[in-house]
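To assess whether the prediction recovers the assembly geometry, we first specified each molecular entity separately, as shown.
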Amino acid sequence: MLSYILRRIVATLPVMAIVALFVFGLLYIAPGDPAVVIAGDQASPEDVERIRQSLGLDRPFLIQFGSWVWRLMHGDLGTSIFTNLPVSTMIGQRLGPTLSLMMVTLLLTIVVAVPLGVVAAWKAGSFIDRAIMGFAVFGFSLPVFVVGYFLAYVFALQLEWLPVQGYTPLNRGFWPWLQNLILPAIALGCVYIALVARITRAAMLEVLQQDYIRTAKAKGLGQGGILFIHALKNAAVPIVTVIGIGIALLIGGAVVTESVFAIPGLGRLTIDAILRRDYPVIQGIVLLFSFVYVLVNLMIDVTYTLVDPRIRY
Amino acid sequence: MALLEVENLQTHFRTPSGINRAVDGVSFHVNEGETLAVVGESGCGKSVTSMSLMRLIPEPPGRIAGAIRFAGKDLLRMSDREMRAIRGNDISMIFQEPMTSLNPVLTVGRQIRETLMIHQGLDKQAAETHAIEMLTLVGIPEPKRRVREYPHQLSGGMRQRVMIAIALACNPKLLIADEPTTALDVTIQAQILKLMLDLKRRVGAAIILITHDLGVVAEIAERVMVMYAGRKVEEAPVAELFRSPRHPYTQGLLGAVPKLGSSLAGTTTRLAEIPGQVPDLRKPIAGCVFAGRCALATDLCRQYAPGLEEKGPGHIAACHYASKGAVAA
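The predicted structure of the complete assembly is given in tokenized form:
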């Protein structure tokens, strides 16, 4: 098991290398020139050229890529063209809010979506099932920013239950921290909840047909024990998979959500960096996101072994 | 008073193409400690009958009517809660497919413990100890190691032993075994049957044995009920049934058993079969349910359904032509 995890971590290296190449290549061919942005409107073509040289942007692609990778391997993500701060420092500053948002969303999703899916499967075909699945389609179709603005309008501006926007670090107290994350997490979680609820329902429907569910019933188990212990654990593999894959959705959604709720996280940093053509920052963030994604996939595979004893590596 | 009295049991299913009368008016009883075999071919309503007794039929699309009196109380009138207290405790069940009837993601020990904790209020520790005892009782070697294992680590015969351990954990008064040996190979079949009989004697449980294996019936049953197309067509003590079957269907079933050694004796004949198929239970059947396949059927059979009549001591059959003597063969 441990050797499997180690092997998997080693196996992420080539994946990360390919991701790095793609990220670098895409930005290289993307239109826009950071030198122009930095030089400003008044700059002469000579100024722009000088800045370009100082940034090393005039060198051939492979040399630029090579030196970037060389520094990466030494743990250096580079320096922001715009703020002159190390990229790792900038990411570090913004990591807290984004991680908080994602954790709260993830938790909210699991707590809401899984029981909804279970109940929908249990009551398959009934009014409750159709209501839950109707909501799922609805939630899946709504863009994050629409839900975000709607929630902010109703619960923050009209009812004044929760703050409109902003972020409070966790070290200033749990409730102030959570307060600022509830609405963004709901907005971000909508699609995710819909997805997980649907998959849970489908997986449960299949499991509930199985012979061992009949056995559980014949043993005199109550409905709760049958659904949440005997059935859910068997349905867990597809559910865990979708929850994991959904983290990719969260990364994309976090960018929009953070803009809507003015959360100073990585999403905002990404947008700012793209607008400024701050290549090292963009590269650093994308690399980080892909690393997280690869790691999440590893966690999914490890979780399988916890829920299904037949899966062994 | 009988332990179990089933009166006019009707289990119907609503299907898109009409109501399927899977079990249509079956009555029988089981005495304490008795072994009743229910036989018939696939689709005759044996399994549906046994599932109805435990109320394991999903409703809807199923619907169970009639009366199932267990120790005098009608199970069909019980609340879900009262029914749960009976299942796995007073009445328990062993299923046909040992490979799929155990939950693959829970340990064997946990699956045995569960019934003990629900019905006998044992704590985890006591239930674990009892689970190990049960595994020993059903003849599983190294029970202390096996309780921590998962079903996929056990063979089919072992899994059926575990099922029996679960079923007998709470000393049930009635054990329903739905083709418990069908999925097992022959040597294991004999072991499992012997085990069931031993344990039955030990706990004094009555058994309803659903099977299509007449060899098994002859070996362990005391009384036999023959079902066809959702109805009871014949019932008799086991020796009586094998000696003089009255219903043409029962005769057909007995005739369809291959006789070992007949080729050595030079008396090979074509294995007898019952021509045709079980009628479509979604359509109303006029007359005798077996008339379509019966070589002896007359217009009387096709128009009027025969009632169950006493043909001998403890021997009843539903056939116009099964007289008190033997039916014309």
